[in-house]
Write a structure and sequence with these properties.
This protein has about 80 residues and is α+β, with helices and mostly antiparallel strands. The protein has two helices and four strands.
């Protein structure tokens, strides 16, 4: 299956760093997983970044500062 991590924060410590910490086992056992590119889920939105995660911005996307990362377990 796929796990999604979403938060309404633009702060790196609450977005990408959380996912990286889980994958590296900081604060608990490491998780064997691969990133899934989330950008194809929002094909009509510009400036989604290099991926595989997405950070939306109020001034660019007309949304809250939403973050989305998708992971698929590999082990």
């Amino acid at each position: 299956g796929v796990v999604g991590y979403a938060t309404c924060s633009p702060h790196p410590a609450e977005t990408r760093a959380v996912v990286e910490d889980v994958l590296k086992g900081r604060g608990g056992p490491a998780v064997s997983a691969e990133w899934i590119d989330a950008r194809p889920l929002l094909p009509g939105l510009p400036e989604l970044g290099e991926g595989p995660d997405i950070q939306l911005w109020p001034h660019r996307h007309g949304t809250d500062a939403m973050y989305l990362a998708l992971l698929r377990r590999t082990g």
